[in-house]
TrEMBL record:
The keyword Lipoprotein does not apply. GO terms for molecular function: metal ion binding; phosphoglucomutase activity; phosphomannomutase activity. SUPFAM superfamilies: Phosphoglucomutase, C-terminal domain (SSF55957), Phosphoglucomutase, first 3 domains (SSF53738). This is phosphoglucomutase (alpha-D-glucose-1,6-bisphosphate-dependent). Its EC number is 5.4.2.2. PANTHER family: PHOSPHOGLUCOMUTASE (ALPHA-D-GLUCOSE-1,6-BISPHOSPHATE-DEPENDENT), PHOSPHOHEXOSE MUTASE. It catalyses: alpha-D-glucose 1-phosphate = alpha-D-glucose 6-phosphate; alpha-D-glucose 1,6-bisphosphate + L-seryl-[protein] = O-phospho-L-seryl-[protein] + alpha-D-glucose 6-phosphate; O-phospho-L-seryl-[protein] + alpha-D-glucose 1-phosphate = alpha-D-glucose 1,6-bisphosphate + L-seryl-[protein]. CDD domains: PMM_PGM. Belongs to the phosphohexose mutase family.
C-alpha cells in the first residue's frame, strides 16, 4: 500500500493559517461578519483561520448562537476580490431536495430551466454540510475534520467542485479533491484507513445528478455511517439557507480555497475491486483471462472499469464504448433502465462476439449486464441473478426490493431459491434502510436492490455500488471456471432459469395538475393520497381483483393473471401506474379497472392510461 500511496498523492499546496491571537474587532468591520461571532477564530482574506484551540471555540459558540440563527451554524462574508461577483437571487433551498440527494440546474441554456445551483448556492450548501458534520462528529483537538470531494463527467463539475471546496474550507475543514470519481468510491473514502492517502475522510461529497440531462447537477453526502437520509438533507439545506441569507445581506465574493489537497483515490478503489475477484477465484492473478467483456460507460464516470478492473484480471475489453468522460452525453443517456442505452450495449456484445456486456449509469452506483446471446440482465432479471448468487452464500436470507418488482420474481426467490422476498417502497435509500432495519430486529437480510439497478449488499457496508454488483457477477464467472463448473456468461444465465416473466409490462404516468380547482386547496400529495384511498375502496368490493395482503406503497392488486400498482411518486405530482400481465388483453382489463375507479378525479391527467386501454 505504501508504494500505491506514493503514486496517488499528488503535489499539494497548503496555505498557511493565520495568527491565532489576532484581534477580531477590526477584522469584523473589514469582513462584515455578524457581531455575534466575536468568540470565533480570526478571519483573513475571507477565510476562517483554524487551530485546535479555535475548534473548541467554534463548538462552544455553536451552543449559544441561536440568538442569531436557528440552525447552529456560523457565517461570514468573504473579502472582496478581483473575481467577478455572481449576482444573487432569492432561493428556496428546500426545493433543491430530491429525497436523500440535492438536485438542481447548473448550466443555463435550456428554456424554462433557470440555473438554481449557482456558485453562491453551492458554497452555502457545502458550508451547511460542514456545519452539520461538525455537529455530528466528536470533537478531536488533535486534527481538523476532512471532507473528500469527487464528481462525475458533467460539464458543470469543475465549477461546482471549486465552490464546494470554498464552502468546506470556509468552515475550517480540510478539503481533499478526488476529481473524476464514482459515488461508491466517495463513500468508501470514509471507510479506508490509510493516513498516507488522507483516509478516512470524515465526510464525503459526490457532485452528480445521476442520469439526468447535461444541464443538471447535484450532491450526495456520506459519512462512515453511509449516505445521509432525507432529514439530514433537509437539515443541511436549512443551514445553507441561513448562510445564503447572509450573502444576500452582506454581499458575496469568490476567493480561492486556501488549502486543497488532491488524491487519486480511484486507484485505491479499483485495486480493492481487483483483489475481490482474485480472492473469489482462489487468488489466481488473472482469473478472467480469455473472457471477452465489453463495457459501456455512457461517457459518465465508469470508464475506469475496463482498463483498471477487467484488464488487470486478464479480460479482453476490445469493443468497449463511450468510456471517455463527456458531460454532454453525446451517445446515449447513461442509464441501465434506458432502452437506447441497453440497445447500445447489447449491440456491442453481439458485434464483438463478447462473453458479457456491462453498463453503468453516470456515477456508477447503478449497473446492468448483457449475456453473450444479447439477453439483457437488468431490472427483475438482475435482481433474480444477484439473489441467486447471494442465496447460495446465505441460504434462506431475505431479499429486500422496491415495490414494482414482479410476482414472478417473488415466486423465483421463494420457491426456487428458498429465500424470502420482502417487497418494500421505491427509492434506493428506502430499500437499503429497510434491509438494515430487518437485520436489527433479527431477520437476516444480505441484499437490498431496486429495479433501477441500485443494489447494496451487507458485505459491502450496504453501499449501492454498481461496480461492486458487477464484481459479484465476475466472481461467479471466475470461481465457476476455477472449479470446472462452467465457462462464459451461460454460468450467469443458468442462474435465472425458471424466472417467470410477463408478456406485457408497462409503466404509465398519471400527472396531477396542481392548478386545477379540483384540488380545493390541497397539496398534490394530499390529492394523490385521496386517489389511492378511493381506488383501494373500490377494489375491495370487486370480486375479480384482490389487494396484496402485504403492501408498503400505493395500491397493489392482482387479477386477470397479472397485477397493477398505483403509487404516488416520491418527489413529483405524478401517480405512476405499473401493469404486468400474461397478455395485452389482460393488461387492458387491469387498466380499465383503474380508469373506472379514478375517473371522478378531474385534476388527474389519465391520457396515457386512456390511450393504453383504447381498443
Amino acid at each position: 500500500m505504501a508504494a500505491l500511496s506514493g503514486k496517488v498523492v499528488q503535489n499539494v499546496f497548503i496555505g498557511q493559517f493565520y495568527q491565532q491571537n489576532r484581534q477580531f474587532g477590526t477584522q469584523y468591520q473589514r469582513d462584515s461578519c455578524v457581531p455575534y461571532m466575536r468568540a470565533l477564530p480570526p478571519f483573513h482574506g475571507g477565510k476562517l483561520a483554524w487551530t485546535s484551540n479555535s475548534s473548541m471555540q467554534m463548538r462552544n459558540l455553536l451552543k449559544y448562537q441561536n440568538g442569531f440563527v436557528n440552525r447552529r451554524t456560523f457565517y461570514c462574508n468573504a473579502a472582496s476580490s478581483a473575481t467577478a461577483i455572481p449576482s444573487l437571487d432569492k432561493v428556496d433551498f428546500l426545493k433543491l431536495q430530491n429525497g436523500s440527494d440535492i438536485r438542481g440546474v447548473a448550466v443555463s441554456g435550456v428554456e424554462g430551466e433557470p440555473v438554481s445551483l449557482t456558485e453562491p448556492v453551492t458554497e452555502a450548501i457545502a458550508a451547511g454540510f460542514a456545519a452539520w458534520l461538525l455537529d455530528k462528529k466528536k470533537f478531536d483537538a488533535s486534527r481538523k475534520l476532512r471532507v473528500s470531494i469527487g464528481h462525475d463527467s458533467r460539464i458543470s463539475a469543475q465549477k461546482l467542485q471549486d465552490a464546494v471546496s470554498r464552502g468546506i474550507a470556509s468552515a475550517g475543514l480540510d478539503v481533499v479533491q478526488y476529481g473524476l470519481a464514482s459515488t461508491p468510491a466517495m463513500f468508501n473514502s470514509t471507510l479506508t484507513e490509510d493516513e498516507a492517502i488522507l483516509c478516512p475522510a470524515d465526510g464525503a461529497i459526490m457532485i452528480t445528478a445521476s442520469h439526468l440531462p447535461y444541464n443538471r447537477n447535484g450532491f450526495k453526502f456520506f459519512t462512515n455511517d453511509g449516505g445521509l437520509g432525507k432529514n439530514d438533507i433537509k437539515d443541511i439545506l436549512e443551514r445553507a439557507a441561513s448562510i445564503y441569507s447572509n450573502f444576500l445581506a452582506k454581499g458575496y465574493s469568490v476567493k480561492a480555497s486556501e488549502s486543497v489537497k488532491k488524491i487519486d483515490y480511484m486507484a485505491v478503489y479499483t485495486s480493492d475491486l481487483v483483489k475481490a475477484v482474485r480472492k473469489a477465484a482462489g487468488n489466481i492473478e488473472k482469473p478472467l483471462e480469455g473472457f471477452h467483456i465489453v463495457v459501456d460507460a455512457g461517457n459518465g464516470a465508469g470508464g475506469f472499469f475496463a482498463a483498471k478492473v477487467l484488464e488487470p484480471l486478464g479480460a479482453i475489453t476490445s469493443g468497449s464504448q463511450f468510456l471517455e468522460p463527456d458531460g454532454m452525453f453525446p451517445n446515449h443517456i447513461p442509464n441501465p433502465e434506458d432502452k437506447a442505452a441497453m440497445k447500445a450495449i447489447t449491440q456491442a456484445v453481439l458485434d464483438n462476439k463478447a462473453n458479457l456486456g456491462i453498463i453503468f449509469d453516470t456515477d456508477v452506483d447503478r449497473s446492468a449486464a448483457v449475456d453473450s446471446t444479447g439477453r439483457e440482465l437488468n431490472r427483475n432479471r438482475l435482481i433474480a441473478l444477484i439473489s441467486a448468487i447471494v442465496l447460495e452464500e446465505h441460504p434462506g436470507t431475505t431479499i429486500v426490493t422496491d415495490s414494482v418488482t414482479s410476482d414472478g420474481l417473488t415466486s423465483f426467490i421463494e420457491k426456487k431459491l428458498g429465500g424470502k422476498h420482502h417487497r418494500f417502497k421505491r427509492g434506493y435509500k428506502n430499500v437499503i434502510d429497510e434491509a438494515i432495519r430487518l437485520n436489527s430486529i433479527g431477520e437476516e437480510s444480505h441484499l437490498a436492490i431496486e429495479t433501477s439497478g441500485h443494489g447494496a449488499l451487507k458485505e459491502n457496508h450496504w453501499l449501492d455500488d454498481g461496480a461492486y454488483l458487477m464484481v459479484k457477477l465476475l466472481n461467479k464467472l471466475a470461481s465457476a471456471r476455477a472449479s470446472g463448473k462452467g465457462v462464459g456468461s451461460k454460468v450467469l444465465t443458468n442462474l435465472v432459469e425458471g424466472l417467470e416473466e410477463p408478456a406485457i409490462a408497462v409503466e404509465l404516468r398519471l400527472k396531477i395538475n396542481q392548478n386545477h380547482p379540483d384540488l380545493k386547496g390541497r397539496s398534490f400529495r394530499e390529492y394523490g393520497e385521496a386517489v389511492l384511498q378511493h381506488l383501494g375502496n373500490s377494489i375491495a368490493s370487486n370480486p375479480k381483483l384482490q389487494k396484496a395482503p402485504v403492501n408498503y406503497e400505493g395500491v397493489r392488486v392482482s387479477g386477470f393473471g397479472g397485477w397493477f400498482l398505483l403509487r404516488l411518486s416520491l418527489h413529483d405530482p405524478v401517480l405512476p401506474l405499473n401493469i404486468e400481465a400474461p397478455s395485452h388483453e389482460d393488461a387492458v382489463k387491469l387498466g380499465l379497472e383503474v380508469a373506472a375507479a379514478v375517473k371522478e378525479f378531474q385534476a388527474l391527467d389519465t391520457s396515457a392510461l386512456d390511450k393504453f386501454v383504447q381498443p
